[in-house]
Specification:
The complex is a heterodimer.
Chain A lengths: L2 H14 L4 H5 L5 H23 L15 H29 L7 H23 L5
Chain B lengths: L2 H18 L4 H26 L5 H27 L1
Helix pairs in contact in B: 1-2
Classes of the chains: A mainly alpha, B mainly alpha.
Chain lengths: 132, 83
């Protein structure tokens, strides 16, 4: 097995392992806990994305483990979208906890679900990072 | 599969790469990601036991970590755009 294939296999294994592990083993019991948990998944995915972003650009003479602009742009776009949804969920959660008019539990849960969907997309993106 | 088992497997994978003479930065990131998830799970588990939500300090720390990670991603992407 070549070093590149071994690196790919091990990288794919380890980069994928954290994804969703938190939500698999811990069930939140309140909207605040649910948002905190999804934020943890979001943070973990970005940590992996950061490592990818720190690689040298792919191209002639580049090492086997390198970054491509298209992938990096896609990951950043998804991460930025996730941050916007996180901010909205945080604002609505605070309003709900303060019993603000017009903000219901359903509103907060919908915000968290939207954030979770984007985090899942981001997790999928970082799980498929590979050796070029 | 428990978190400790996942961590152990991550350790084995890292060791395999060391033996191959090539430690991927993504491996280290995967291990760091596991740490983030373990910390998150610990807060949620404690909350379940006490019936309490994460504290403002815990939320603030998490917000800071996310902001820092996003900042690194934005900076690297900007650098790639300029390369």
């Amino acid at each position: 097995m070549s070093r590149s294939i071994l690196a790919f296999a091990a990288t794919a294994l380890v980069a994928t392992l954290p994804l969703g592990a938190c939500s698999l083993f811990v069930a939140p019991q309140s909207p605040a806990q649910a948002l905190y948990e999804v934020k943890g998944d979001f943070n973990a995915a970005i940590v992996v994305a950061d490592a990818y972003a720190g690689l040298p650009n792919c191209g002639p003479g580049a090492p086997a483990l390198c970054r491509t602009k298209d992938v990096l742009d896609s990951v950043r776009k998804t991460a930025d979208q996730g941050k916007k949804l996180l901010d909205q969920a945080s604002v609505d959660l605070a309003a709900y906890q303060a019993s603000a008019a017009g903000v219901t539990l359903a509103t907060v849960n919908a915000d968290i679900a939207a954030f979770q969907a984007t985090v899942t997309t981001l997790q999928g993106a970082v799980a498929t990072l590979k050796v070029k | 599969m428990s978190d400790s088992t996942l961590t152990q497997i991550a350790g084995w994978a890292g060791m395999a790469l060391k033996l191959a003479g090539s430690v991927s930065p993504l491996i280290a990131a995967g291990a760091a990601g596991l740490q983030v998830l373990e910390q998150t799970a610990a807060v949620i588990s404690a909350g379940q036991a006490s019936g309490q939500d994460p504290t403002p300090a815990q939320v603030a720390a998490q917000d800071a970590a996310i902001a820092s990670a996003l900042g690194k991603l934005d900076k690297a992407d900007d650098e790639a755009d300029g390369a």
